[in-house]
Amino acid sequence: MGVGSSSTPTLATELGPPEAKVTGIFSYPIKSCRGISLPRAPLTPFGIRWDRQWVVVNSKGRACTIRVEPKFALIDVELPPEAFSENWEPTTDSFMVVKAPGMEPLKVCMKKQHYEVVDEMTVWEWTGPAWDEGPEAAQWFSDYFGYPCKLARFNTTSEVRNVDPDYVEGQHMTLFSDGYPFLLVSQDSLDALNKLLEEPIPMNRFRPNILVEGCEPYSEDLWRDIKIDRFSFQGVKLCARCKVPTIDQETAIPGTEPYETLTKVRSGEVLRPNLKNKKKIYFGQNVVWNWKDSSAKGDGNVLKLGDPVYVTKTYPSVAEAAA
Fold it and tell me: Which residues of 153-172 are buried (b: 16+ CB within 10 A; e: fewer)?
């Protein structure tokens, strides 16, 4: 079902009524830390601007995440409000501020620093060098977690992390996300899930980049070609969920839900019984932005709350969607 739209008459005429509208935009500058809710944000080929540009790594250079360290849920990250303005570039006076219970605020200069490089750091399948944000940041995270850590920043000037070519063709990239530059989820899907839970949970358990509303629950499973306002996106694969959504983002305490309920209603065994990965559970859709096809360049590549969502191509069934 569609929702009302404030889009241009031409676009609405070409595509018909929208399927939904954007009701949330989120960037997570440091992987696994709390996100920043935004009214508007620039799109980049890597995702919402600043999304997962930093990651905490241990002494072996491996990414530390909320999967192993629930305390990540209590770390707030603040960027200057102007950081999400079109074409804004940081100066030596631009800082990311990191806060956590029992810790003094940490200020990280957003302009590229010339500290040593973290050699051969690893996030999932990707290994490469990254910028070390220095001894003060390393000490802060080491003190917080209780073992040696560093804060690393993706070096976009020299490194490229392509998404899995088995799922999407073309030049699509990401930074320190699990695998894809955007995660799209509908509020309608969460509402349907919450009806099955004894205690409803908020959307921050699922850490989307783009939240939409006004469609049928779980209809985003089937979205293949998507227009958000005038921007073209492609649904890549269903998002397989680990147990991160079981971690309360206010207390950092893990539980059993919604994993137990999702296993009953959203597992591969339920949704895709004749295919592999029967034990995986799915919630949301990984997507990429077709940035090379963008009709707007420079200042115009901005996603906004209220943008209409059009679906121009769907999979016939969940079993035929990629996962």
Answer: bbbbeeeebebeeebbeeeb
- Rounded CA separation 156/175 (Å): 8
Q: Which two tokens stand for residue 277?
A: 């990965």
HSE-CB at 124 with a 13 A cutoff on CA atoms is 13
Q: 3-state DSSP call for residue 184?
A: strand
Per residue in 160-181, pLDDT tens?
999 999 999 888 999 999 999 9
Q: What is the separation, in whole angstroms, between the first and last Cα of the chain?
A: 25
Q: Count H helices and E strands in the chain, helices first.
A: 5, 19
Query: CB-based contacts of 267: which residues, under 8 Å, 6+ apart?
Result: 278, 279, 280, 281, 282
pLDDT reading at 226 higher than 60: yes
> How crowded is residue 67: how many other Cβ atoms within 10 Å of its Cβ?
14
Answering whether pTM is above 0.85, one says yes
d(CA 280, CA 240): 6
